[in-house]
Amino acid sequence: MRLRRKPQAQQMVRKHPRVILDPERVRGYWKAFFGNNHPLFLELGTGKGQFLSRACQQHTEINWIGVERIEEVLLHALQKADETGCGGNLRFLWLDAKKLDEVFAEGEVDRIHLHFSDPWPKKRHAKRRLTDRRFLEQYRRMLKKDGFLQLKTDNEDLFNFSLEELAKGGFQVTDSTSDLYDSSFDQENIPTEYEEKFTSQGMPIHFLRARHM
Ligand SMILES: C[S@@+](CC[C@H](N)C(=O)[O-])C[C@H]1O[C@@H](n2cnc3c(N)ncnc32)[C@H](O)[C@@H]1O
């Protein structure tokens, strides 16, 4: 996702009250940070934030955190969250997902959402995929025992790669379909920005849910 560079984006992100700038200090204390015992759900690679701006309002009983590494993109998500009236149950990290271990302690996360992650089609870039085994190792540590990971993508190669990596990485795939909108899983679905783009072009959406074993 390429956006025109906004010169003051970094400064605006740093000042925004929804952004947690030193999340390493909250490691192990996320419940205290939110001030409640609600489950903690992450979306990795939030993009412009459409999913979270809806999810945080439909599910106020969840603490939501969006993780995005590009500040210009995160700025859009922050603006959307404010415009749509999200409450204090939605916060953001300006962070590369490869640093998640520094931010979440073992068993601290209830669910991880991966939505239309960059596919990195070249083999030499495979370790950048958010379902590469190095990322999965982090997710396994952070997730609660009965926690799970949920993934949506238009990209069949990334989907198949993810299924293989999950099987090798200590996850059990409990649900999967290569056409989300022709399945029962779409009933609670909240579409993302990319998802709306792909479905409007008639492309099927792959979906899976995998439980930490
Ligand atoms: C293709 S976009 C999808 C955006 C959104 N999830 C959607 O479905 O509309 C992928 C997003 O993931 C972000 N991203 C990719 N790798 C990341 C990483 N390692 N850590 C954090 N964000 C990442 C990109 O910057 C981009 O905004």
UniProtKB/TrEMBL annotation:
It holds the Pfam family Methyltransf_4. It is an enzyme of class 2 (transferase). GO terms for molecular function: tRNA (guanine(46)-N7)-methyltransferase activity. Transmembrane segments: none annotated. Substrate binds at K122, D154, T192, E193, Y194, E195. S-adenosyl-L-methionine binds at E43, E68, D96, D118. It comes from the Bacteria. Pathway: tRNA modification; N(7)-methylguanine-tRNA biosynthesis. InterPro entries: SAM-dependent_MTases_sf (IPR029063), tRNA_(Gua-N-7)_MeTrfase_Trmb (IPR003358), tRNA_methyltr_TrmB_bact (IPR055361). It catalyses: guanosine(46) in tRNA + S-adenosyl-L-methionine = N(7)-methylguanosine(46) in tRNA + S-adenosyl-L-homocysteine. Its EC number is 2.1.1.33. Keywords: Methyltransferase, S-adenosyl-L-methionine, Transferase, tRNA processing. Catalyzes the formation of N(7)-methylguanine at position 46 (m7G46) in tRNA. NCBIfam families: PRK00121.2-2 (NF001080), tRNA (guanosine(46)-N7)-methyltransferase TrmB (TIGR00091). Belongs to the class I-like SAM-binding methyltransferase superfamily. TrmB family. This is tRNA (guanine-N(7)-)-methyltransferase.
